[in-house]
């Protein structure tokens, strides 16, 4: 009976670690943080012989040498650093023995219900501010402040709507970039702003894959030569989708 209980606990440790790692990778965490979190959870749970192999597309883990490994797949990746922070907070609470392993697992299962994304209207305001302030900080263009904010806000709206209705990777960036190019050129032709280049650059800023690029460099420098280049390729493909979309808009409208 005692052997059965230990085996059940080992299985719970693996399931908790896999779920925590999956949530972190899906929401933009770097591999170093994921590996460290899994190791800490295992160690604090008493599974000192646990081993985990973490990649961008899946996690393989076993609690003991005589126990079979379990695998979880990572199908879709987005960016919600609040969920990453929440997983780390739960891990610290578990280390301080404020919550049990079972409660830790149940909280992770409720993660999508407990941690809601920012409201869409707030995301729109954020996109407006990122695009508009770029004109002032980096381009010293005060006249196109409102136009750049509008283009960035509408580009983010189109990006979110496309991402909601399609599962094709990088299509949302491509369509959003085309619309940003169209809007920028039409605004210039209407005489509302002065520089189409500034509007396009500002409008693209909320869509630039900054987090994947940063994580790619961090993973590569830490010696993870699987996830690092993979994230880099993913970031490059996103940047190419944005560039091709803008190029198509300029080609059509001139």
Automatic annotation (TrEMBL):
Residues 16-252 form the Threonine/serine exporter-like N-terminal domain. The keyword Hydrolase does not apply. It is found in: Cell membrane. The keyword Cell membrane applies. The chain crosses the membrane at residues 118-139, 145-162, 174-192, 235-253. InterPro entries: ThrE-like_N, ThrE_Dicarb/AminoAcid_Exp. Keywords: Cell membrane, Membrane, Transmembrane, Transmembrane helix. It is a multi-pass membrane protein. Belongs to the ThrE exporter (TC 2.A.79) family. This is Threonine/serine exporter family protein. It comes from Apilactobacillus waqarii.
